[in-house]
Amino acid sequence: MTEESVAIFTKLAGSFVGLLLVLYGTLNLWLEKTAAVPAANKQLFCELLLCQPSSTDSPAVLDDSPGQPLAQAQAALVLNPASAYRWADLADSEMNAKSVDSGKFCIRQALASAPGNPAILFRAASLYLRIEDYPHALEHLLTVLRNPDLSAYYDRVFALYSQMDLPLSDLLNQGLPRSAAAANGFLRFWVNQNKLEEAQETFNWINQNSLTSIQSAGSYTALLAKDGRWDEAMVSWSQDTARLDGGYGKTNWIYNGSFEMTPVECPFDWRLLPHDPVLVDRDNDAGFKGNTSLRIRFLDTPKDSSSIAYQNVLLRPGTWQIKAAMKTAELTGDQGVVLRVVDAEDILRLDVATNSFAHTQEWTSIGKIFQVGPQTHLARVEIMRPPGRETGIRLTGTVWLDGVTLAPLP
Asked: Which residue of 9, 189, 297, 346 has the fewest C-beta atoms within 10 A of its own C-beta?
């Protein structure tokens, strides 16, 4: 069926629409009011395409129904010539009938009837993918990515991209808008798929286009670390966060030691681990130097002495010092909170902790000087409360930490 014949068919069919609608209204009213009509006959009436359009015609619902016979698709369009979904159905049927030009015409009509509708955009992209017309497929998927209100559909776009037989550079340059939301979403897609090579190329493209976010930098760093490339991960993280924490990796091996920034998912940022009955959060009204500190509230005796917060660090052999400022309020028991540095691979190589205090005390310095041996490289700095000597005491109270630093000594 040619494009011209489709247009002629539609015009001719339109002349019958009025008559059909009158018939439809009469029969539908009769069916609704007549209880004696068997359900099977009502079903037959629907199968003859005289029923109300389905609620699935809503533009917010993706229509993935398989193609239907050409005649049925044509008849459905006659009943609802303004429906983008019926035009898309006819486009599929035309493509199944090997009428490519007619299919393209119909999908253009669908797009014109529902501009920006994600379901129709996906169906248009799918049609062009069937004939390997990648530029037009990318054009319609790019329309989805340009709309921040359609972010729920981004991963579906990226899944289609991953199946295309195209170089990733083409997808980046032709299929991504210059927007941080879409670009960083594409990076997260590769990270979640554990595709390091694709993530690396995407991350480089994001940096080249000045679209980097701290969240995407953390995701990429985490993927490098997961692959065992810890040194490369730290270099990448320090470069991407230089504007936020310029001393990181130079004068202080702790990132965000002042807790002024909200931690992100990254092995070199703080990971807070609240666990009943211990609450952990950032207190924006109790900073030692800046505005913020880390607040730890003990509502009762913890079940164990597991970490309350931690971050990973890379050390080299030599003498190091870790220190911080701490404040307590009504902290019961004889053991307070400490900063612990432990080898992440073998605790026997390195396991040291700072001093601590309990009860109520204003900001006071805590710290520890220690030696790092030649076998220790990846380590973890933990905030924890070791078991005390006293037993049978209900452990409650609040601790604040700020200004955590870790650096090698000359």
From this structure: 346
